[in-house]
Write a structure and sequence with these properties.
mainly beta
Length: 72
């Protein structure tokens, strides 16, 4: 599972960065808050992320590393 679409403007993300609004978005584990250590795993032909800290495989969020006010 990767994040492909910007939650702000809907543009396709390129290497986690939005070419439309300039935001930088990365996956964040909703259980432990980890934003650094993830592994890609495949279950039944579906690519998923797994948190390298708590092994969460289901519940992820997207975190903005660039705040909207910094873009102006």
């Amino acid at each position: 599972m990767t994040f492909d679409i910007c939650p702000r403007c809907g543009s396709n993300l390129e290497n986690y960065r939005c070419p439309g609004c300039g935001g930088l978005f990365i996956p964040r584990c909703a259980q432990c808050g980890n934003t650094l250590v993830f592994e890609e795993v495949e279950y039944n032909g579906v690519g998923l992320l797994r948190c390298g800290v708590c092994s969460n495989q289901i519940d992820f969020e997207i975190k903005s590393l660039v705040e909207q006010s910094e873009l102006s």
